[in-house]
# Entry
Amino acid sequence: MSRPTRQTLAPASATSLRRFPGNSQHRPPHASAPFRKAAAALLLVAAVALPCAVLYRAVVLNSPPPVQVGWGFRPWQEQGTLRAPVMVPEEDGDLDAVAAGDMEREYPKLEQVLQEASMDNKTIILTTLNAAWASPGSVIDLFIDSFRRGIRTNSLLKHLVIIAFDRTAYRRCTEIHPYCFALVTDDVDFSQEKRFLTAGYLELMWKRLDFLRLVLEKGYSFIFSDADVMWFRNPFPYLYPDGDFQSACDHYVGNATDLRNIANGGFNYVKSNNQSIEFYKFWHSSRLRYPGYHDQDVFNFIKHDPYVTEIGLTIKFLSTTYFGGICEPSRNLNKVCTMHANCCIGLQSKLHDLRILMEDWRDYMSMPPGLKILGALSWRVPQNCSLSL
Ligand SMILES: *[C@@H]1O[C@H](CO)[C@@H](O)[C@H](O)[C@H]1NC(C)=O
Ligand SMILES: *[C@@H]1O[C@H](CO)[C@@H](O)[C@H](O)[C@H]1NC(C)=O
Ligand SMILES: *[C@@H]1O[C@H](CO)[C@@H](O)[C@H](O)[C@H]1NC(C)=O
Ligand SMILES: *[C@@H]1O[C@H](CO)[C@@H](O)[C@H](O)[C@H]1NC(C)=O
# Structure
């Protein structure tokens, strides 16, 4: 595969190197280009998603449609389609796991993993893993590799707990990482692949949210990160000291407290306190009001709810300058903390673009300091990632 050549000398204007190679070479170096592209794909996406969701409601849930929600599908909300299908082999007895319903009974096991991985201030890093993302060379390997190649991120690996959704993922985790925990759900049929917005997929997303609530109740604050988020710099210095719930964004409007920011559920920091615990309970129970939606969409609905103010939860949105993604890249490699393969459909496309991200980062790291400062390098993604189906 030929790789687009790239200048590394400082351009007259920083934007002149903001290229989007790939399918269409040298697209205009305009910040909103991905959005315009996304908008073009919107109708197609909606055309597919709408009937699916309607069918889901009618057949699976057999419940009335939500009162309030319009079909305002936004491309950046569609990134949830990127979360991989989940494949769960039949269970056996030796899995070091708990069923979600037994979480409390299995308290000591979970407690032990959290304790071992915790920082002094009871903070941990969590990610989730399924079979599709667990195979060698797949997403989880890129995730861990990014910590090793990032700036002051390698030492964070000893605070990372990988939550496995199935036996294959759990086994792989134990081969590559010291802190693994299996979250197995016993009341969902896992005998087949789970696809986005199927009952099983949604069930799993909500189980995960309930699990995170339990982690908060145990007194642990956490960064939750999807495994398709590459960690290039230690994010902790860039979090707000006064935010209970801080979320990366698919679209950032330039103001950390503006609720018009579109949160992305793939990266967030949550402080363990009464406010966050109550909020997680409220969020989880809100699934009943918005059947057929996953946790990220429901967050973007309920962030406006007066009850959130009543709880006293402080929400902060993290700038895409530091916490970027393919929807809205972090443009400056001198500032980037994380890059998320959101706005990307299909695992192969995702892997392709994640590998490009890692190559770009390696190129950046090997540049002399003077060139780094000039900001001569920019991401070559998106290439295969897109919202079009
Ligand atoms: C917790 O400790 C880590 C490691 O010392 C630090 O980076 C992080 O900022 C601390 N978190 C909070 C919320 O103080
Ligand atoms: C940011 O948003 C909040 C909430 O919408 C608003 O009160 C505040 O004035 C905004 N700040 C700036 C600098 O625009
Ligand atoms: C939470 O609230 C309870 C009672 O309302 C209080 O006793 C406790 O100290 C609070 N915990 C925190 C962490 O604020
Ligand atoms: C990525 O896109 C290129 C060009 O469209 C195509 O040739 C290649 O097969 C794609 N790779 C993957 C992994 O999808």
Notes: The radius of gyration is 20 Å.
